[in-house]
């Protein structure tokens, strides 16, 4: 099977890191590829960033649908930007890394905490917990208060801050597992788990394995109801090219 990892931001080095983290977890016979939008924010740290990046996610799915043999997509940002819109555009499973991480955390613990980058993105994570129905499983959302790109530019200092917050979560939150709240942390899971002594879940690997499972089971995105393909219509201005979408009309 072929799984496409979409990094919704435009930082190529982060796309490469996410790709290599996913590749290490891929099963035998799973091909992994990665892409990012041509335009958009270099990191995603606000509602505004998410709105802009969601357009890029949709465009990357449309590009993937013009290729042959992509069986599933992973949206590799913890805000899951554009997730439902992406699901409208394809029959292939589309997995957001936050939703995937929440699901897996509840399978190995009754309560978990999230350690993310900035406090404001923690609020976005709280909204997702409510939307997905996991609020009662999450004890606390903790922020290391590091910009996302510090994971690239100042990795040692960023790692130390993340481990510090994870240790506080372990000692103060009465939890069984920790969820890492940023796709840019995808390559840190084993190191953090070793330092903290708790199971640590990061969403890129979680989403990849869930995508593999859905493809293996022959399950696809339902085209009945609100995830049916969008109805064709005219788009104007910078989005005029979207008027020419040749998506199926079945619902």
UniProtKB/TrEMBL annotation:
Pfam families reported in the protein's UniProt record: Asp_Glu_race
Family of this protein: Belongs to the HyuE racemase family.
Protein name: Aspartate/glutamate racemase family protein
Organism, scientific name: Halomonas casei
């Amino acid at each position: 099977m072929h799984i496409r990892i979409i990094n919704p931001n435009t930082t190529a080095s982060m796309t490469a890191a996410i790709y290599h983290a996913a590749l290490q977890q891929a099963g035998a016979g799973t091909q992994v590829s990665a892409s990012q939008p041509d335009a958009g924010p270099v990191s995603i740290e606000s509602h505004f960033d998410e709105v802009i990046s969601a357009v890029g996610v949709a465009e990357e799915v449309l590009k993937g649908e013009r290729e042959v043999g992509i069986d599933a997509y992973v949206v590799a940002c913890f805000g899951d930007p554009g997730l439902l819109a992406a699901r409208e555009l394809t029959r292939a499973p589309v997995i957001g890394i936050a939703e995937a991480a929440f699901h897996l955390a509840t399978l190995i613990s009754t309560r978990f905490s999230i350690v993310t980058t900035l406090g404001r993105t923690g609020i976005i994570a709280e909204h997702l917990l409510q939307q997905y129905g996991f609020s009662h499983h999450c004890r606390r959302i903790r922020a290391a208060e590091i910009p996302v790109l510090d994971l690239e530019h100042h990795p040692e200092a960023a790692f130390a801050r993340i481990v510090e917050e994870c240790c506080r979560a372990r000692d103060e939150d009465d939890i069984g597992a920790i969820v890492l709240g940023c796709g840019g942390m995808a390559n840190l899971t084993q190191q953090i788990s070793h330092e903290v002594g708790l199971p640590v879940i990061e969403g890129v690997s979680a989403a990849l394995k869930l995508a593999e499972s859905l493809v293996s089971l022959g399950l696809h995105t339902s085209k009945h109801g609100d995830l049916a393909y969008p109805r064709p219509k005219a788009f104007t201005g910078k989005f005029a090219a979207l008027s020419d979408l040749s998506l199926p009309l079945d619902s």
